[in-house]
Design brief:
disordered C terminus; mainly alpha; 13 helices
């Protein structure tokens, strides 16, 4: 990827075109943001912002010309790319750990802001999920909304915020990994030292206490966002041990394949990784690593 990254970083028109083409597709949106992170790391945040401005103009123009919702997609692209620039710049200037911590805090702030704006988040998500269920039924799928909508609606704010955090961090990791060989940085070692820090651990403890108060629903949402951060630390911990103990090169398949293929396994593994990440923050399950506050 080093040669391709160097080639791409010298060709703004191709970078911008890829950002525009990849963004509207759900499975490639992360790649669009990763290109922004790559540009931020190799050329600086000013060049990255210029790319974002050009790409946003083209994307909005194409969406409007096709009769689509240009306001929604334009706002989504602007937020996604600006966050990629911010995280890339933080990682470039300080550390990967700080960039990930900031992503988690932004996700929590977004969940709080959404709750304040909507007021009744469960009612909002029940309407959205009912609409989706009706569309699925009209398409011939057998769906029983009453069975899943109320329970799912309680978690949707947290799940959506956590998903956004994970997407932004994956883009950060990809863009960093692509650009680091050309810059002489070691992405692997920095990822293996990833920690959420004492502040987020303390915040998790406060939220657990809030579960027993009237803010329980919001605390649930915020804990889900925090859990995304601790999942990342759990992954870093496992990779640290894999590297330190020289596990076989194909060992990551045993970790990632079940998550990709089996939803039940994914839930169990993500829960276990979040617990490992939290324990690592509390007890220090890696020797010789840094411990950012």
């Amino acid at each position: 990827m080093t040669g391709l990254s160097a080639w791409l970083i010298q060709r703004r028109a191709i970078r911008v075109a890829l950002m525009v083409v990849l963004f509207p597709l759900p499975l490639t949106l992360v790649l669009s943001a990763a290109i922004v992170v790559l540009t931020t790391g190799m050329k600086g945040w000013r060049d990255a912002l210029q790319d974002c401005a050009v790409a946003l103009s083209v994307l909005v123009a194409l969406t409007a010309a096709s009769g689509g919702g240009w306001v929604e997609i334009g706002l989504g692209a602007a937020l996604t790319w600006l966050l990629a620039v911010l995280l890339g710049a933080l990682r470039n200037a300080v550390s990967l750990a700080l960039a990930v911590q900031v992503a988690v805090l932004i996700g929590m702030a977004a969940a709080i802001g959404f709750a304040l704006w909507v007021r009744d988040t469960q009612a909002f998500w029940e309407r959205v999920l009912m609409d989706l269920a009706e569309r699925a039924s009209s398409a011939g799928l057998v769906v029983e909304p009453a069975e899943f909508v109320p329970g799912a609606a309680q978690l949707m704010t947290g799940l959506m915020s956590a998903s956004a955090v994970m997407s932004s961090v994956v883009a950060l990791l990809l863009g960093s990994a692509w650009g680091d060989p050309a810059r002489g940085r070691d992405f692997g070692s920095e990822f293996r030292e990833l920690r959420m820090g004492r502040t987020l651990t303390l915040l998790a403890g406060v939220l657990v206490v809030l579960l027993f108060t009237g803010l329980g629903t919001l605390a649930d949402d915020l804990l889900l966002v925090l859990a995304a951060g601790f999942v990342l630390q759990g992954l870093a911990l496992v990779h640290w041990h894999g590297h330190a103990r020289q596990w076989p090169r194909l060992w990551p398949l045993a970790l990632y394949l079940p998550m990709a293929l089996l939803p039940a396994a994914a839930v169990l593994e993500l829960t276990g990784l979040a617990i490992l990440g939290l324990l690592d923050n509390l007890l220090g399950l890696r020797r010789g690593g840094r411990d950012p506050a």
